[in-house]
Amino acid sequence: MAAQWLRTALRAISGKKYRQGPREQGLSLTEQRALGAGLINSEQIMAYADTPETGLPQDRIAYGLSSAWDIRSPEDAAERLSWLIETGDRFVFELAYQAYDEAPAESREDDLFRALAHSGRYPSESALAAAYARARLMLTNVADTYRLLKDPVNGPYVPNHYKQGILAWDLGRLVTLARMCSDLGHIDERERDRIIQFVGAEVTTNFTSWPIFARGYILGRAAIGGQGVMLEGIIGIASDAMTDKKSPWVLSPL
Amino acid sequence: MKTMSYKPAFSVLEFVFGLIGPAIIAITILFPLDEMKVGTLRLDLPPGVANGILAAIGILATFLTVSTLVKKRAARSNGGQIVLTETSLTFTRVRGFKGVLTTVNFDDISKVAITTGEENTVTLWASTLNPAKVSFDADNMHSTEEFSMLVDTVKRHADNAAFSLKEVSA
Fold first, then answer.
1. Disulfide engineering: B51 pairs with which of A207, A218, B28, B102, CB 3.0-4.6 Å?
2. If you average pLDDT over residues A114-123, what whole number do you get?
3. B76-89: b or e for each residue (b if 16 or more CB lie within 10 Å)?
């Protein structure tokens, strides 16, 4: 365990990016795009950037899944993956941004609650309450970070970018989560590959460049975590991924 | 349209400093000085010159204090408020010793700098303003909610502005 953490720390210190895994056969374009969607996340956790397997030790995956996602069983994994595929944070973000953009400050939270309640997506009061709590968090973070976000490639993020949503944020996490769950045996390889195909197809359909994808991912992270050190780190990883000549995004543009 | 209070406060410290100038003047009247000594430097001056220099310092200190108080009073004139509409922001700007109502269109704002943390300020730059820069401090507002509302409105309406954020820590 200590040796693994030491290796991880050394890799982080050495600045080695875009880890390459053992490649037995080439990836299809759809698979490359799916792994590209998870690139920021992969770099955060130092997973392989070019194979469906993460290459991470089992105990690290188990810790990551339980601490960040509360996933401890195949049932948990199926539930979280299904949530990311169907709704993710993008649905609530859309309503939160709409409330921020259209409603006066004093009535935003009420408008947001009404929009969630009328969406028909939350069958129980507890589900609605959980969604409302997340939506309020997003509303606060959107207000705090609005007009203040930028990255070296896209420049400042303008209101229209918010309207384009945070699908990238959900897709990036979905593909990485599927890979981790598969490595730990919570889902089988067939299910992982099905998700990879889904993510790859969504990327092809919805994005015309990796910088646009990165912008959506950063907006999603800002909506959940607000302005802070972690966001700066994510913007740094995304900036490198958009410009580094060895980056999969640069080597294989959309 | 939203209206919020913006009144630079008079501080007790300013009133206390305000007494220093008159005190120096009183001393120069009551106690004739023969010489001036600054550290090891000793100046032999003609009679009355030392008192004159000190009196001038006292007058200057009094003028600075009084002008600061008058300027603050001017800034609090016209209702001492910021008025926000869908297209513009109106506030009182001090010109000389007078408070002048000034309006800036959101579209004319080219730059916005926000500070948070120990200091909460929002500074705007617009070529239509003279001088081009104006700052608003949360300390001069009725509540932090009103300051947040001001920042929020500027963020949502100043479409042509470049924004920056600075965290100020103690």
1. B28
2. 90
3. bebebbbbbeeeeb
Q: Which residues of A touch B163 (CB under 8 A)?
A: 147-148, 156
The strand pairing partners of B158, in sequence order, are none
| ipTM at complex level | 0.71
Weakest mean pLDDT among A17-21, A113-117, A233-237, B43-47: B43-47
Q: What is the pLDDT of residues B53-62, one digit of tens each?
A: 888 888 898 8
In chain A, what are the domain boundaries? 29-89+168-204, 90-165+207-254
Report residue A224 as tokens: 């959940």
Q: What is the Cα gyration radius of chain B?
A: 22
d(CA B116, CA B165): 8
pLDDT at position A1 is 45
What torsion, rounded to 10 degrees, do the Cα atoms A26, A28, A32, A33 define? 180
**pLDDT at B108 exceeding the cut of 80:** yes
Which of these, B134, B154, B146, lies nearest to B93 by C-alpha position? Answer: B134
pTM of the model: 0.81
For residue B129, give how far its alpha carbon lies from the nearest alpha carbon of chain A (Å): 22
The tens digit of pLDDT for each residue in A137-193 reads 999 999 989 999 999 999 999 888 999 999 999 999 999 999 999 999 999 999 999
- The Cβ of residue B118 has, within 10 Å, a number of other Cβ atoms equal to 9
B163 — contact with chain A (CB < 8 Å)?
Answer: yes
Tell me how long chain B is.
170
The Cα A174–Cα B41 span in angstroms is 77
Q: How far apart are CA A226 and CA A141, in angstroms?
A: 5
User: How far is the alpha carbon of B156 from chain A, nearest alpha carbon, in Å?
Assistant: 8
Q: What angle do CA B11, B16, B21 make, to 5 degrees?
A: 125
What integer pLDDT is reported at residue A23 of this predicted model?
Answer: 73
Contact A143 B163 (CB under 8 A): no
Angle at A156 between CA A99 and CA A105, to 5 degrees: 20
Please report, rounded to a whole number, the percentage of residues in chain B having pLDDT higher than 70.
98
CA–CA separation, A72 vs A74, rounded Å? 7
pLDDT at B95: 86
